Amino acid sequence: MLELVSAGGLLMYPILLCSVIAMAIVIERFWALRRRAVCPVNLVTDIWQWAQYGQLDASRLSSLRNGSPLGRVLAAAIINLRHSREVMKEAVEEHGRQVVHELERYLNTLGTIASITPLLGLLGTVIGMIKVFAAITDQGVGNPTVLAGGISEALITTAAGISVAIPSLMFYRHFQRRVTELANIMEQEALKLVEVLHGEREKDPK
Hints:
Elements: H1 2-8, H2 12-32, H3 35-38, H4 43-52, H5 58-67, H6 69-79, H7 85-103, H8 107-139, H9 144-197
Helix pairs in contact: 1-9, 2-8, 2-9, 4-9, 5-6, 6-7, 6-9, 7-9, 8-9
């Protein structure tokens, strides 16, 4: 491994740094975007039951707000319970945008890594080929050992850049789709709660 890094030249170090950052983001986002952590099951049902028994006090709201991203959105609806359905929906949408923005944390960085690492590899290729032509100018083509260094640097940095970019792009697309799915679930749950609290659903929301 160290031999490849050394043979790839200085540009291997930023490529390796990008790979470490990308790996950290992937692990963190997998943990943060778990369905049960973002959208706990039966949360709307629990809130409806609390409302039925008059248990929607400040401590419940604080626990709900701090418990999950969906809880924050639903707490915004509950705070505006005395207002009209439209006001509640506006509060839900406003807090929903903030929550989705938080769910997208670090994804721009991951997308940037997917974009720049092939360019770093290409730059390494150009530098390696420059070294090859410089060696040809100085010593001709009779010494393959001199030429091999530049060629290997060009190939190694290109391969390293693409190797980091491909999984980074795959996970970037995956997490974007995951955030969209979670946002849709939160929107459906929030609208269900608004309808329930305003008496537009007669049965236990499940």
